[in-house]
Amino acid sequence: MLAICITIFVLALLEGGWFAFDGAHALMRGDYVTPKSGQHAGQLGPWKHVVRAVGIEPRSTLMKWIHVVLGVSWLVVLVCFAVKLQWAWWGMLLAAVAGLWYLPFGTLLSVVQIVLLVVLRGRMG
User: Fold this and answer.
1) What is the per-residue DSSP string for 90-113?
2) 114 CB-near residues (< 8 Å, 6+ apart)
3) What are phi and psi of 110, to 5 degrees?
4) Distance of alpha carbon 58 from alpha carbon 5, whole angstroms
5) Is the pTM value of this prediction over 0.70?
6) Neighbour-count burial for 12-27, b at 16+ CB within 10 Å, e otherwise
7) Given this model, what pLDDT does residue 46 score?
8) How far apart, in whole angstroms, are the C-alpha atoms of residue 45 and residue 102?
9) What is the pLDDT of residue 86?
10) Low-confidence residues of the chain, pLDDT below 70?
């Protein structure tokens, strides 16, 4: 069970931390972190299509704030999960579901976290 908790913690730290960092970077510097060279230089990932589909411009201030708020919220819930607050499992599940749109890596990390959280819940009884 400890290995599952540590894996969930690390994945959530990576994903929530990235959301907070990239959103803050975009707010302060004007744009997200993107490749500097190569075929995809300056381009956002496939997640841009998901947010456009729901009517949000990927490089808008709103989307940058969504990154920051989701990231910081996730990190707060992660701390609560680490100190074993009773409600934090649900918070982690909600955060992982909220990160599914961030194709491709956020989706992968979120799916793994959701599966591990369900497994953990099953083992906890």
Assistant:
1) HHHHHHHHHTTTSTTHHHHHHHHH
2) 93, 96, 97
3) -65, -45
4) 32
5) yes
6) beebbebbbebbbbbe
7) 96
8) 8
9) 92
10) 125
